[in-house]
């Protein structure tokens, strides 16, 4: 920056500091925020609203700030920001100002509750800007703010960023807190949650097993933190194909919460919701439908139409209806959920994509094959652009699109896509993982339809062998694979593909 420009700004800064010290303090604070769209509500409070109005007026009068549409959102020119930082550095106040700013933003930054969404989205760019500063790396408030930011970006579907933030928090807590310290355990819990959303299931399971082990040793059975971690671990078990462990753990959590919490309590409803999801994976469909109908009834009575928790349970109930053969109810409910999410969430948001995925499956079962293909091709295109190749959600959508391609007679596309999915799952999942077996089963069917009978039989014989070793004799997946293999062999003997 030219010295003449700097000198001119410095003269103005000194005039403001002399005539209105509060305005100078506000300017120092704002110089370490994102310079665009600074909300008045994020600023440190002065002794009165009148003083705040006067000091903001001073800064606008000197041209340091510009007000948007006579409202309470302000912009700072980048040259003003840079000059102010140079001025602060010259006064040897950088460390002090950044510490004060970090502490203030940590205090005013909201939780990730749905009702706070507008506020935290407005504050987020400014929190991220202050978190870039190395000068705050030894402040405990920095890591408290990182935790809040991590929760909020995760709620907005930005799992990779959330993982990065919580990893930093965990490193800090592991260096400064004992193994049993609540803050250390809480940050490990949140990192594991972010791992799950980011498709890092094994890391999530490993970390949550540690957290649960410590909390079961140190906290009472009814302690909310212990129950929350057990709930989270059960969800990770389900994602990792450990369905029996998930059912057992969630039934315990639900029993405790039903004994200790009101019917409408969010934690009680959340664990009932998760148990219903696991029941579906365990083919306990009637129990899942019954539990989800209760949950949805409570949430429709207590939450707004756009509330994520209400939509999540409606989504899950629609899935259960589908598994229960109630296809029309599933389609109707999912079309409602997708319409709301398309109105309220970004195109790349995982929750929006998940409901579009499930609606496409419902369309397929309802005979609406063209709609299913179109919707799944959209979902897969977005996920291939935004998720890693090994992410479970991306693989699940590719698997589902391949199934729909088969129904639509696009056999070559189905084979090609399933070969890719199976290759990734064989590289990343255990041999006994239900998701890996399901895709191998589906690829064998596609091989059969494509006339590749030898490959189909060989692959399905492997699937059947694993399922006979790991699943109960009457498990639906085992029976389905045995039946498909038998049909293939009969078709070979009969001379037809």
Automatic annotation (TrEMBL):
SMART domains: TPR (SM00028). Residues 471-497 are annotated as: Disordered. Residues 471-480 have a biased composition (Basic and acidic residues). Pfam families: TPR_10 (PF13374), TPR_12 (PF13424). InterPro entries: NLR-like, TPR-like_helical_dom_sf, TPR_rpt. This is Uncharacterized protein. It comes from Penicillium atrosanguineum.
